[in-house]
Amino acid sequence: APVARELRCLCLENLDRIHPKYIQSVKVTSPGPYCDKTEVIASLKNGQDVCLNPASSLVKMILKTLLNKASTN
Amino acid sequence: APVARELRCLCLENLDRIHPKYIQSVKVTSPGPYCDKTEVIASLKNGQDVCLNPASSLVKMILKTLLNKASTN
């Protein structure tokens, strides 16, 4: 069986705002056996990880921006 | 200085298709010092990681689905 990376929810509180320029990557995790909530974790360019509100329009905007950059690679 | 997790691109080839039901999480990484491409890595419910084409409409659809589920949490 695959080894679980974390056995609990990782986000205790979510930010509603952050400037997209600080973001290196964004991970969206759907509810699963170890956490019953959707979690969005952004890794910042300074190495910090922050949780973002999955329901915020900011998250959609950031993901759109990241993916649109890819289309013009 | 923050420790880099990986010092190279992680995706050698990208899938264009996968059924969303197998996906536990999706990570979108923007180009940075260690990889000049946008990368999309999906972790599957069976523990496997697969790379998806960042320019595919599938990726947008999957992220939208994950986030829309969150809004109704």
Question: What is the gyration radius of chain A calculated from CA atoms?
Answer: 13 Å
Order of helices and strands of chain A: EEEH
Strand content of chain A: 15-25%
The order of strands across the largest sheet of chain A is 1-2-3
Whole-Å distance between the termini of chain A? 37 Å
Protein structure class of chain A: alpha+beta
Q: How would you describe the shape of chain A? A: globular
Give the total of beta strands of chain A. Answer: 3
**For this entry, what is the oligomeric state of its chains?**
homodimer
Helix content of chain A: 10-25%
Number of helical runs of chain A?
1
Instruction: Name the largest protein-protein interface in this structure.
Output: A-B, 32 and 32 residues
**Low-confidence runs of at least 5 consecutive residues of chain A:** none
Description:
Two copies of one chain form a homodimer. Chain A has 73 residues and is an alpha+beta fold. Chain A is 21% helix and 23% strand. Chain A is built from one helix and three strands. Chain A has a three-stranded antiparallel sheet with strand order 1-2-3, covered by helices on one side. In chain A, a hairpin with a 4-residue loop joins strand 2 (39-44) and strand 3. The longest helix of chain A has 15 residues, at 57-71. The radius of gyration of chain A is 13 Å and the shape is globular. Chain A starts with 22 loop residues before the first strand and ends with a helix. The interface between A and B is medium-sized, with 32 and 32 residues.
